[in-house]
Amino acid sequence: MKIVKVPGKNNQHKVRIYALSTCAWCKLTKKFLKAEGVEYEYVDVDLCDEKDHEEIARDIRKRGGSLNYPTIIIDDNVLITGFRREDIREALKI
After folding, report:
1. Which of 21, 23, 25, 86 lies deepest, with the highest CB count within 10 Å?
2. Could you give the number of structural domains in the chain?
3. How far out from the chain centre does Cα 65 lie?
4. Mean of the pLDDT values across residues 23-50?
């Protein structure tokens, strides 16, 4: 699985995004986090092989999420589905 790490000055939280490479909401989420200086990592699910795709689906489902993108996981315990700016701000305290 190709995980891309995006550096940022705000690295107090572990942030992972499961995204689609062609998704406008996913791109907005990445742009928002970068503009806020948040360090994060992302996986473009549509560019993964089938094995990785299944692993990602299991990870999202075990956390109570649905297979919609973007799926943002913060500190391994907060799951946000979709580009929900205020929910992201609240979870990251920004």
Report:
1. 23
2. 1
3. 12
4. 98
Region 28-40: mean pLDDT is 98
Strand order in the sheet with 4-6: 4-6, 40-44, 15-19, 71-74, 78-81
- Domain enclosing residue 84, as ranges: 4-92
CATH of the domain at 28: 3.40.30.10
Q: What is the mean pLDDT of the segment spanning 69-80?
A: 97
pLDDT per residue as tens digits for the range 12-28: 999 999 999 999 999 99
The CA distance from 2 to 73, in Å, is 17
DSSP string, 44-64: EGGGS-HHHHHHHHHHHHHTT
Mean pLDDT of 41-48: 97
- Per-residue tokens: 44: 């473009």
